[in-house]
Amino acid sequence: MNTNHSNGDVRIGFYICHCGHNIAGMVDCAAVAQFISKLPGVAVSRDYKYMCSDPGQELIQQDIREHKLNRVVVASCSPLLHEHTFRTAVAAGGLNPYFFQMVNIREHDSWVHTDRAEATAKAKSLAHAAVSRVRFHRALETTRVPINPDVLVVGGGIAGIHAALTVANSGKKVFLVERNPSIGGHMAQFDKTFPTLDCAACILTPKMSAVRAHDNITLWTYSEIVKVSGYVGNYTVTVKRKPRYVNEELCVGCLECINACVFKEGKFPDDFNVGLSKRKPIYIPFAQAVPPVVVVDPERCLQVRTGKCKKTCLEACADRKAIDFTQKEELVEIKVGNIIVATGFKLFDAKRIPEYGYGLYPNVVTAIELERLVNSSGPTAGEIVLRDGQPPKSVGMILCVGSRDMKTNRWCSRTCCMHSMKLAQLVREHTDADVTVFYMDVRAPGKGYEEFYDKSLKEGIQFVRGRVAEVTDWAMAPEEEGKLVIRVEDTLAGFVRRIPVDMIVLAAGMEPQADAQAVRRMFNMSCGTEGWFLEKHPKLAPVSTFTDGVFIAGCCQGPKDIPDTVAQAGAAAAEAMALADKGFIEQEPNTAYIVEADCSGCKSCLPLCPYTAILFDDAQQKARINQALCKGCGTCVAACPSGSINQNLFEDEEIFSEIEGVLAYV
Amino acid sequence: MKYSYFPGCSLKGLGRSYEESLLPVMKHLGVELAELDDWNCCGATAYMSVDEGKAAVLAARNLAIAEKAGPEDLMTPCSACYLVLNKTQHNIADYPEINDTVRRALGSAKLAYNGTVKVRHPLDMLINDIGLDVIKEKVVRPLKGLKVAPYYGCQVVRPYATFDDAWNPTTMDRLLATLGAEVVPYPLKTKCCGGSLTGTVPEAGLRLTYILLKEAVRRGADVIATVCPLCQFNLDAYQDQIERRWGPARIATVYFSQLMGLAFGLAPEQLGLKRNFIPMKPLPAQQPAQKTTV
Amino acid sequence: MSDLNWQPRIVAFFCNWCTYTAADLAGVSRLKYAPNVRVIRLMCSGRVDPQFILDALAQGADGVLIGGCHLGDCHYGEGNYKTIRRFQLLQRLLRDMGIEDQRVRLEWISASEGERVKTVINSMVEQVRALGPLNLPQRREGWDREMTPHNEPAAKTQPAPQRAQAEVAHA
After folding, report:
1. Do A253 and A351 share a domain, yes or no?
2. Does the distance separating the beta carbons of B187 and A354 come in below 8 Å?
3. Residue A508: beta bridge partners?
4. Which residues on chain B are in Cβ contact (under 8 Å) with A474?
5. Number of neighbours of residue A439 by Cβ within 10 angstroms
6. How far apart are the CA of A631 and the nearest CA of chain C, in angstroms?
7. Which of A37, A392, A618, B130 has the most CB atoms in a 10 Å sphere around its CB?
8. How many CB pairs under 8 A join A and B?
């Protein structure tokens, strides 16, 4: 049905926004409005300070009524920001929202050009294009796509745990998939958390237990996502469940099998203790692991690798028969409506800064290693000791290792100042060592954080402002013999200092996970330039991504501490729940459709659709597009040799008129 | 393997024991070296500080001659020459004005620099072209029991770390280990020796030399192995003065090529060892009762 | 014929998810670049019909820029692969028509590459400026001359050969 005509019936309302000074500072809005008012079909042409505000929107609605407008064009900011706002306003004014077109003269014009005349000329031509195009718009209806209420949470750290619990508590079903054998993430490795010095395990383990006990949460540890297909509300996800060789239902966590293992002692680096202790091929990640089930390392277990082992573990578990070497990798397919990605971070490898001697001098450790030493369930039962077993008398803590660094990572890792101060306080508590913190700036922005800094100062922790140049073991004076010397310019004192210490702790920064690129492709997300997953808007949409139904939370989005991580996890859960509760999503009607009469049945379009939305009707020898599956990319539209495929909202004639409009003004 | 060879002024003068030891060692390894005909002084660090354009011309003349002589890489043992030639190549590539000056100046002498010649350091050649396996085979008198502190100096690692790590280079360490020596961990391996300051501002320059010597002694080294004629000279020639100012720090400094020569069984007299101020202690393996094992 | 006041006019087709967003980011970052480009928003670079490009040139554009997601990152999976296929074919056609490569450009710009939007636009504007106005009418005359090699009006008025009269005339 043709409700549009390039002449006659069309009555266009044109509005150009000043956006305060943002647009009006560079574009002569009144002149643009003047220019547009003279174009055929334009019934109203106004400029206004803030079009997106209530009065601005009411202006449009009033004009629709009074001037009987049947097309609306707004020239303001990016459609990615306010297209929805204005479409809603137009709809509230009684006009089909798809009779609306938006012109970007802020992000693409006033903010990026410096010459008023040129910026105004560009605004005029872009507005002209929109006014030409909007003539051809037709009334369209959104389609509703049902949303599967189930939610997938990827990653079982504190972010994933909190998101899963929040969603599950609302009554929805959650799949929590974690690649390690236990949930808990990095937080499980911490001893105390700043600024309250709460024991990390004490606040985390109840949540971990709650996850396990929750009826609505299906917990799959030692599992990974391998494939994601579908679209918001209707994702099909393939999960790879790696074989533990232990039956989760039967294992009670008595650990007898570990005792009985043919390896008399631990031989392989224990990841949980960051390599500071050794474990056997059969192990439990840590005492409070959830699930509290043992796991067999397939690369180290003799039975799995060679098939030749006494299997003393089987004997030890003779009653329950929980160990099962016949287990195989399993691929399971699940259907969910929303996905929350909470895959966390990895630590910067301090070896990349050889000046600090990590890997060279045994008593240079990273903060996480010290965290394990301090922890009472760590490799030294909470004793802070040097490699020779003696307690240190002096400790130096170097901040910004792999952060705020032009040669490695440019960003600030946000937590290191605080966790270094925390570790400094704990060192003072456990030993009597002198602690000196070497900083560039002390960043303590959270609630109670500045007070924590005061406490550190009161406890006699020394702070030296200067970027450490090197850690060396060459002694220039007798008191430096046998120690590690930190050479640093003390910028507040104004000279270069040599400070001998027994132990050095490097505050290694946070980095995106090693497989961040592969993961983000799987979920159809983007990464920012630094490698963190990209949020839809850094201010207003920090947990959404550009793909509807996929949310991000926690450090995978950027470095942050636990309170912010939990806040984001809650936010992502809320957004997922909002979609699930609504039950449907309004799909943009920019789908492709085939004009049957023109289709010649050549089948060129069939293989082009990534959503397999195009089918061939053999009887009629015509191609057909399933509107529910079509996502509106337009690839088939451009490919059709007979031009029989069109795209709603992006019709050929609409684009051609835009091209003409954008070039017509000289 | 064929290389062109740019000795530079030092290797024909104060640093002649570097050439005296390096040439037979290279010959022993089957490397053919063709000394550039009519080479000139590279300008070292001094000229570059005075006039970058003219300094580039001076250094580039050698590069042009090398290109004219053939397609082989140009072995440049002296650290200063190595750095200057490298820097000149960068300057000509990065700065059109310098490129222009060099082109015109060389052109007037009917020479041209085309940016094709590769300037190589002997350590680079030994590790990457010849290979430690080949070197190991040639060792007939392993330097067993000799504790060596590997000292690289600054110019082969700063500002360009072309064939080794800038902070913790290990090419010479690995070479010395292949020769059978015990390589002493030496954290000052890239610290400045004082350079020309030992002559002009001795309180500053010699102090840096003293620090290097003292640490080498403290680490129990028998000898310091070096790659640079100026480093060798600073470490070797001023030990009396240093002792008067700060205290004793007596240790011999030799070129890595001299140690290679000894390990290869070449006659010590051929290797210029007698030119050192501080004599190197005799090799433990030279003691009559010991059996040499390969 | 070069008007001293002539400014290159370039039409750009940017895909919504990557390049358009990157251009927004450039705006948010207040980067400054040449004002000669007019952006037309499409959902995917795969929507770009070669006819759009030809039409833009015919309507007076001196250059056309197409921006899409990096290969492998298309929001719709594979749209940009189709774009690059069509683009390469179109490029051969354009070369035959004597239209310089720098006038029609395909660039992959991801959502976080605001800086790249600026550098691509600036470089393209300069390149097109150096090439001068496209001047399609003049080129058309050139093509006409190619098709009638002797370039004599008389040749056009010669009677069509006997056989041709039997065929259907095509304008």
Report:
1. no
2. no
3. A401
4. 187-188, 215, 218
5. 21
6. 8
7. A392
8. 13
- Residues A446, A548: one domain? no
pLDDT at C147 over 90: no
At C61, phi and psi to the nearest 5? Answer: -70, 145
- Nearest residue of B to residue A353 by CA position? B167
What pairing do the DSSP bridges indicate for beta strands B74-75 and B2-5? parallel
Is C32–A112 a contact, with Cβ atoms under 8 angstroms apart? yes
User: Which amino acid, A280?
Assistant: K
Which A-chain residues 617-636 have CB contacts (< 8 A) with chain C?
631-635
CATH code of residue B213: 3.40.50.11810
CA–CA gap between residue A518 and residue A218 (Å, rounded): 25
A548 touches C: beta carbon within 8 Å = no
Say how many CA atoms lie within 13 Å of B240 toward its Cβ.
3
Query: pLDDT tens across B124-178, in order?
Result: 999 999 999 999 999 999 999 899 999 999 999 999 988 998 888 999 999 999 9
| Domain closes at, from A582, A615, A639 | A582
Average pLDDT of chain A, as a whole number: 94
H or E element in which residue B65 lies:
helix B52-69
pLDDT in tens, A104-133: 999 999 999 999 999 999 999 999 999 999
Query: Could you tell me the residue range of the domain that residue B170 belongs to?
Result: 140-286
Chains B and C touch (3+ CB pairs under 8 A): no
Q: Which residues of chain A neighbour C78 with C-beta distances below 8 Å?
A: 608, 610, 635
For the record, the structure tokens of B103 come out as 């082109």
Query: Do the Cβ atoms of C86 and A114 come within 8 Å?
Result: no
Does one domain contain both B116 and B155?
A: no
Question: Would you list the DSSP string of A33-90?
Answer: HHHHHTSTTEEEEEEES-TTSHHHHHHHHHHHHHHT-SEEEEEES-HHHHHHHHHHHH
Provide the whole-model pTM.
0.83
CATH number of the domain bearing residue A114: 3.40.50
The domain total for chain A is 5
Contacts of C56 in chain A (CB under 8 A): 659, 663
- Which one of A352, A471, A474, A481 makes the best mutation probe of the B interface by having the most chain B beta carbons within 10 Å? A474
The pLDDT of residue A220 = 98
Q: Which residue among A78, A113, A633 sits closest to C46, beta carbon to beta carbon?
A: A633
Could you tell me if residue C4 is inside a domain? no
Are residues B144 and B280 located together in one domain of the fold?
Answer: yes
CB contact under 8 A, A472 and B187: yes
Check: CB of residue A258 under 8 Å from CB of residue A349.
no
Interchain contact A111–C (C-beta under 8 A) = yes
pLDDT in tens, C54-111: 999 999 999 999 999 999 888 888 899 999 999 999 999 999 888 999 999 999 999 9
pLDDT at C153: 53
Phi-psi region of B81 (alpha: psi -120 to 50; beta: other; left: phi over 0): alpha
CB atoms B187 and A474 under 8 Å: yes
What is the distance in angstroms between the Cα of B215 and the nearest Cα belonging to chain A?
7
Residue B294 lies in a domain: no
**Six-digit token string for A125:** 């031509």
Among A457, A490, A511, give the residue marking a domain's end.
A511
Residue A317 CA neighbour count, 13 Å, CB half: 26
Which DSSP string corresponds to A165-187? HHHHHTT--EEEE-SSSSS-TGG
* pLDDT at site C155: 44
What ipTM was estimated for this complex?
A: 0.85
Question: B275 with B157, same domain?
Answer: yes
Number of domains into which chain B is organized: 2
Contact A650, A590 (CB under 8 A): yes
Q: Transcribe C142-165 into DSSP letters.
A: HHHHHHSTT--HHHHHSPPPHHHH
Distance from CA of B148 to the nearest CA of A (A): 16
The answer to the question of residue B73 being in a domain is: yes
- CB distance A475–B168 less than 8 Å? no
